[in-house]
Amino acid sequence: MNERKQAATVRDRDELSTQSELQPQAQHVQPNGLLAVWEVLMVATKLGLTSFGGPTAHLGYFHNEYVRKRKWIDEHSYADLVGLCQFLPGPASSQVGIGIGVMRAGLLGGLAAWVGFTLPSVLVLIAFALLLKEVDVSHAGWISGLKMVAVVIVAHAILGMAQKLTPDKERITLAVLIAAAALVWTVPYSQVMLIALAGLAGWSMYRKSPVIPAATMKIPIRRSFAVSCLAIFAGLLVVLPVLRQTFNVEWIALFDSMYRAGSMVFGGGHVVLPLLEQELVPHGFVSKDDFLAGYGATQAVPGPLFTFAAYLGAVSMGGGGAIIATIAIFLPAFLLIIGALPFWSALRSNSHMQGSLAGVNAGVVGILLAALYQPLWTTAVLSSVDFALACILFVLLTFWKCPPWVIVVLGIVGGMIVH
């Protein structure tokens, strides 16, 4: 009897001790959270200022900054997150950044990651729209240098990811086959289908393998909130066209066009261009000449290609139009990644899902390998001098461990000298 009382006393004392330990921590949650959000914002802004080369190159920049340098996320979790974003509509690189921001600092961290990565190019493209929208910079020497930087960054990312994600001959073969298929099969949804096929192949080969404990992906989002985000995503697709027809207001029409374009894009940001042209040019938001001029300007800025929407919004409705267009085209990506992340973390611990993810990870390497050649290599390395510059930059990044921003500066200078 005395032993029971002593045990109960010890248990009560332990509970009180635990509560007293937790109470001070609760008082510091908000400051720590704000500091984490600020940290995410600063890192994402740096990436937004230096991440040239399009969505494929962005994944390389993210890998170097978040995985290699800061270790905010491990290699396999990063590859799983990339695989998830390849399945979802929207700008994959922006969704990866949002996902990492959410894991690091919650919903505000995801918002900070998006703002930091997006805002620099949005501001530049608004300036292009208002001041320089008719200037052709597509053949400038520094643009050529940035294209070579993109080649180097992607090659560096492929090397690092392949060493860990394709460790056996089966996955190496799968990655190469996916790369070959991606190069010869270029329909709008081909990348999504190839990733799905890679997942099916991985499930077939590895579904009976021992379950590898999945690295913990901290997702500070309730599933009920995630389901609400998915419901809002679907609801807006239905409601916005109705509002557009009912009220015939220009900004509602712009929001509807941009939201629908952002919801229907698979396989990278470049796919959004024909959708935007179809939504905006025939309806008189922008002329075809202005549309093409803005596309050329977009190639000259870092950050996601979806920021092209800021230019289009500024051309059609000024600064307010730029804000509306930017929010509308990125909103589907934000709702989808927030809605999918909590369920993804649970599914990836399943043995069958892990087998599929092994194939998906190999498929991601294959997709990156294909993109290294087309469009990056074929548009950047046009001569033996270009190849020499790319090799020098690759050695500096990979073996001399130069920071990416140094590679960007050297690429700009080298491109201006060469071209």
TrEMBL record:
It comes from the Bacteria. Keywords: Cell membrane, Membrane, Transmembrane, Transmembrane helix. The chain crosses the membrane at residues 111-132, 144-162, 174-203, 224-243, 322-344, 356-375, 387-418. Signal peptide: none annotated. Its main location: membrane. It is found in: Cell membrane. Residues 1-16 have a biased composition (Basic and acidic residues). InterPro entries: Chr_Tranpt_l_chain, Chromate_transpt. It holds the Pfam family Chromate_transp. It is a multi-pass membrane protein. Residues 1-23 are annotated as: Disordered. PANTHER family: CHROMATE ION TRANSPORTER (EUROFUNG). Belongs to the chromate ion transporter (CHR) (TC 2.A.51) family. This is Chromate transporter.
